[in-house]
Amino acid sequence: MCVPSAISPRRQRVGLFLWLVSLTVLFVGCRALDPDYSSVSRPYSVTKLVADSPEVRRLLSDAAARDAEADGLRRQLPDEEQIRLHNEMGLHPERYMVERRKLLSEMARQPGVTVTGEQYFRIIEESPAGCADDPVTTSNYLKVRATTGPSKGSEGWACSRDVQPTGAWVM
Question: 31 with 37: CB under 8 angstroms?
Fold first, then answer.
């Protein structure tokens, strides 16, 4: 008579391990695909979500047009000149940041909500207007909605440097 053998302890451990790995992949995979977790603020950070308004829309639209014009002019330069200009902008950002600094100052004066610590956001809209405090970085404004934490439900415009795609921190 054949008696089925019990599952060996090694097979039990392997089975449990595979079950845990599958559960982890399922959880992480679902969160990675969920738009409510598409971006995140840094732990211990303070981020302002600037309230959407006609004035904010005008500021972003004007800045995007200026950025596009400047980018178009730079692209017309020969490659060597573009490299020289890029290096110059890195060495002397104040010469190239007059309009950007005005935008940053105006956006800082707009009403909004302060979000602290690591929170997840859904990206609602993207503006091509730059928001970095240096002329070389390519951060831009994102309209986001907080989907976790004490600020859950709050919406506003934030810099992509502060609210980045999940898992894609750029220092």
Answer: yes
For residue 122, the cross-strand partners are: 145
> What 3-state DSSP class applies to 109?
helix
pTM of the model as a whole:
0.74
Report which of 49, 57, 52, 78 is spatially closest to residue 149, judged by C-alpha positions. 49
pLDDT in tens, 113-146: 999 888 888 889 999 999 988 887 788 999 999 9
Query: Of how many residues is the chain composed?
Result: 171
- Helices 54-75 and 79-91, axial angle in degrees (round to 10): 130
* β-sheet with 112-116: strand ranges across: 112-116, 46-50, 155-159, 140-146, 120-130, 39-41, 163-165
